[in-house]
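Protein record
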Amino acid sequence: MPRKSVTESVADENAAPGGVAAVDRALSLLAAFRDGDDGLTLAQLSERTRLYKSTVLRLLASLEHGGWVLRMDDGRYAVGPAVARLNTVYARHFSLDSVVMPVLRTLVQATGESAAYHVRQGQDRLCLYRVDSPHPVRDHARTGDLLPLGQGAGGRVLSAFDAELYAASRGGSRTQLARVRADGYCAMVGDRHREIAGISAPVFKRDGELAAALTLTMPAHRYEERHARHVLAAARELGLLLP
């Protein structure tokens, strides 16, 4: 009788409904590689996936055959060229608006407030994408607007998590930005405009590079701090979707 694991594997915990278990397990092996890993041993792969080493070896044989992993001279395994090829295909056909806009719409639906995606442009921030609140009373920023980096929740987030801007900050500004970095987001009422409130979180690419600030804005009288969890969740989701 085959041994049954007391602890479920990562693949079993996140099995695709109606999917194939072996594929889920193979994908969990690829997902085990993290930023900074230059190679993983059989033991490390087994530990990270919670699969038996014998199972890992069988899966690695198929993945290596397809070029998804490489076996190094020292016996460790690394991500193979097939992954790089797919990444190139993905990046070539990647459409930012097709990724950002659905997340913004979902955030607006969850909160009832306006959501925007801001990127740094010199000493300003550009509203690259925006979905308006369904409420008739809202702020009236538009896609394409340039706003100051030094004001508003989105500006503070970009200034706090942009390495160059943070290093250049001084005094009270540095203290404020350090607080934003520690909290992981910024929530402000009446900063850029006394009647506008905002909650913003950084969007990081998979390699840790800052991509944008995801910002929820609303009239000050409708500000609710509980919306921060929705903004943080949306920012994390976007980070996973960016190439």
